[in-house]
Amino acid sequence: xxHAETLRAGLLALMTGLPALAAEPAAxxxxxxxxxxxxxxxxxxxxxxEETPITQASIANKALTFGLYGxxxxxxxxxxxxxxxxxPSYVWLGSCLQACGFTLKHKEAYADLTGLxxxxxxxxxxxxxxxxxxxxxxxxxMLVSDYYEGASTDWRETEVTVQDIRWRKLDTKVMNDGxxxxxxxxxxxxxxxxxxxxxxxxxxxxxxxxxxxxDWIEVHGQAVKRQETAK
Length: 231
Known about the structure:
By secondary structure, the chain is mainly beta. Helix content is 7%, strand content 39%.
């Protein structure tokens, strides 16, 4: 008995003499909302006194170039109404007598549209026209969004989180949507733009056919520097 008591006393002394083990600090929880990306670029477009085919001179942000797609691409125009006086100068798809699309490309960087990347824009559609985002990936794949902006009585500012969008493949030769593309790689987006996949109203239709108008667009995402082409 005396031996057992001595053993217990020794074990107790040994245990109480050990330094307390420091608890491992918990890894900080990743909160996506704490990592919203900055604005990559904004394009307001230069004012035009009257309707004119869109050119590079229409682009206000000198870091951007533009692209035209679809059989009606020559109809993409800059337009402005004399009345109302505060109506902006806008990109108009109404003069595309066949479906068309318009994109913007940053000269020095791709857009990383993963995470909480967003698109903000000010638009106005008439008729049944539904304005959809279209993107060109770094590998050349063209996609069109299930998300769209429908008709509105006046100009409307909206934003969409790109992560919430589903995408279909886009045939830009005829501007037809194809199969769903599940989880496309949006870490390097070459061009960002829009299409309504429809014929524009043209002129003198009284708005019966409808059209799409875009005042400005903002892209919120990380910039990914383009690799320089070896000479």
